[in-house]
Design brief:
This protein is mostly beta strands. It contains five helices and 41 strands. Strands 2, 4, 5, 7, 10, 12, 14, 15, 17, 20, 22 and 23 form a twelve-stranded antiparallel sheet that branches. Strands 24, 25, 27, 33, 34, 36 and 37 form a seven-stranded antiparallel sheet that branches. A hairpin with a 2-residue loop joins strand 38 and strand 39. It is globular.
Length: 646
């Protein structure tokens, strides 16, 4: 039938329709096929788009879960980027068909803001409040030597007292501080008290002093030096920071039933504040002066790991020179150079020389013929940590340079041929004048010393516990150990802090339980303290530390078992804690399908010992780590998905 013949039929249908609904219905019938097909296509495109989004979300969740799974391992003490030959297999969470690809790399922090201490001396002469016939001046209080400030008692009962004021404290803001004093009494059983001046404290009703002493000790033995320290309370620090010129004043009081004299040897005000610290590596390759390179490169000197820069002696001497990368600061206050060394022969002598051509004594090509540091590597194939502190003259020379870079000569000698292996040679500088925008605050934290270990939680008589912390950074270290006997009678405990590893009787001391206290001979002892009579804790003073490994020894000197008090991040003497800047930073990079996720993660304090490496899920550290995400890199799709078509 032709179209001409079909039209009358349509016309007749329309003529019989009295309304207008039928024409629309017919139009829908005619156009329906043209509408339905595109709608089905759009629905399919939308479904595929939603499916892709769901896949992307599932991939992101898998990537995020993988980062947190790595963080869980770090909290239990894993080293996610260990030194060879150890390995770490990062966990991967699979929510679908795509398996996460994970890589974990160490990030080395460079320029940081950290808390550093400076010792301030007595300014001027003591002011005698009670006492007679003073001998000496404030200069006699500057150092621990045989020069004393001497004051005899007066009155009934016999007593003496004097006031001293510190030099101006240069920190813009003091973080905390302490007073250290070395004294002796010419007669036994004298009581020594130290009072901190703080007129802003309502309890200080005696001319700015509290009637109750901030520190009280008994000088039990006559003519025997004893050293003590008293920490400033928070209120004292607040008062000190309120002063336009920060000077700390204290009062020293001594009493006894009979006549006596108090001799004070060293009295310093140790104040800590925030300074900038820059840490740089060796620039390029070392210059070997004497010896032959066996293995390694300048890159091997970066980290404290199992890769070494190894030089063999041609006869009995190894000598090489290194140059630092440029420091970020234009003015330096202090420079230290930590170095880890070992040799294949015990007894190798190590010498370090600082390049300073402006010093007339430096006649050996800009070096002094006399080394700036001399030490002995006592054992063969055992790491020894060494730290060189530059003299003020050497720092002054560096401050004339622009940019600042330093040279160091390393020399080792022995009676016959040997090999010297060097590791972690760093240059660390501090500055009070560095722009604040250049730095970020370092993590100074209270750390659990490992109370889950039964050898530390309950320590039998004449035994101890040795702990290694591997990732200490520039800052402050202080240790407090509170403990009690089962019957709460008096005990005696002690703490030792060593830089590097510890040897005893010619052997390396392994972490964990020890049965004898290590000697300071052959070891780098930086801090030691013993509990005082009638006190159930022992606390060290704070010490300035650098990058590297530190060993802490807790020892029970008493005849009774000691039970360690719980860890708490309080700073209180009733708890057990270590205050230390120790951490390790990692970049966790996860790829799941087309989704990438990166996180910078900080592990505090980082891997420690005991137990021995390698770490596993069943062989974990006794110290639980605090794990923080420092930053996320915004996750994205790689490459971007195309927009849905249609």
């Amino acid at each position: 039938m032709s179209a001409r013949h079909r039209w009358p039929l349509w016309a007749s249908l329309l003529r019989r329709q009295e309304g207008f609904i039928l024409p629309w219905a017919m139009m829908v019938i005619l156009l329906g096929v043209f509408i339905a097909v595109p709608v089905i296509g759009l629905a399919g495109n939308a479904f595929r788009g939603h499916a892709r989004i769901e896949d992307q979300i599932r991939s992101f969740y898998a990537a995020d879960a993988t980062v947190h799974a790595v963080m869980s391992d770090l909290a239990r003490g894993s080293d996610a980027a260990p030194s060879a030959p150890f390995t770490y297999s990062p966990p991967a969470v699979n929510f679908g068909t795509d398996v996460p690809q994970v890589s974990v790399n160490v990030l080395e922090s460079q320029t940081l803001a950290t808390v550093k201490p400076i010792n301030y001396l007595v300014d001027g002469n003591p002011t005698v409040l009670v006492g007679v016939t003073p001998i000496g001046t404030g200069l006699d209080l500057a150092s621990d030597d045989d020069s004393y400030y001497k004051l005899s008692d007066a009155g009934t009962p016999p007593s003496l007292s004097y006031e001293v004021t510190s030099q101006p404290v240069q920190f813009a803001k003091v973080s905390f501080g302490e007073v250290r004093i070395t004294a002796l009494s010419t007669k036994s059983s004298a009581k020594l008290e130290v009072f901190i001046y703080n007129p802003a404290d309502p309890a200080h009703t005696q001319n700015g002093y509290n009637p109750i002493a901030d520190m009280t000790v008994i000088l039990e033995l006559a003519n025997t030096e004893q050293t003590f320290s008293v920490s400033l309370e928070d209120a004292d620090v607040t008062y000190l920071n309120s002063l336009s010129t920060k000077r700390l004043k204290i009062k020293v009081v001594a009493t006894r039933t009979g006549g006596f004299r108090l001799d004070t040897d060293q009295l310093v005000f140790a104040m800590a504040g925030v300074v900038s610290t820059d840490q740089v590596n060796v620039q390029g390759e070392p210059l070997i002066i004497t010896g032959s390179l066996l293995s390694g490169s300048g890159a091997a000197l970066r980290l404290d790991d199992t890769t070494y820069y190894t030089v063999s002696s041609l006869s009995n001497v190894v000598m090489y020179q290194v140059t630092s990368s440029n420091l970020s600061f234009s003015s330096l206050d202090k420079v230290t150079v930590p170095l880890v060394v070992r040799a294949n022969k015990g007894g190798v002598v190590l010498e370090l020389f600082v390049f300073n051509p402006t010093d007339p004594a430096h006649t050996s090509g800009g070096y002094d013929p006399t080394p700036d540091l001399t030490t002995t590597i006592p054992l063969n194939n055992v790491d020894k940590a060494v730290t060189l502190t530059l003299s003020q003259a050497d720092v002054a020379y560096l401050n004339t340079l622009s940019p600042i870079s330093m040279k160091l000569k390393v020399r080792a000698s022995y009676t016959s041929a040997f090999q010297l292996e060097s590791d972690m040679l760093l240059f660390i500088a501090t500055s009070n004048s560095a722009p604040a925008v250049m730095v970020r605050q370092i993590s100074q934290q209270y750390v659990d010393p490992g109370l889950k270990n039964p050898n530390f939680s309950t320590m039998v008589a004449k035994e101890g516990y040795l702990l290694r912390i591997y990732n200490v950074r520039p800052g402050l270290l202080m240790v407090n150990w509170a403990s009690h006997t089962p019957d709460f009678k008096e005990g005696k405990t002690s703490i030792q802090v060593f830089r590097g590893l510890v040897i005893d009787s010619g052997a390396l001391v392994t972490p964990g339980k020890i049965t004898s206290k290590p000697s300071s001979s052959g070891n780098d002892l930086v801090l030691a303290a013993s509990s005082r009579p009638h006190e159930a804790f022992v606390r060290t003073g704070f010490v300035d530390v650098d990058t590297g490994v530190y060993t802490i020894v807790f020892f029970n000197d008493s005849a009774s078992t000691m039970i360690t008090e719980p860890f708490a991040a309080t700073g209180n003497k009733e708890d057990a804690w270590i205050y230390v800047p120790a951490f390790k930073d990692y970049l966790v990079d996860v790829q799941v399908g087309k989704v990438g996720l990166k996180a910078v993660v900080r592990q505090i304090p980082g891997p420690t010992e005991p137990p021995d490496f390698p770490w596993s899920t069943t062989n974990i550290n006794w110290i639980e780590n605090l794990v923080l995400i420092q930053s996320w890199e915004p996750y994205g799709v790689v490459p971007p998905l195309p927009a849905p078509s249609g």
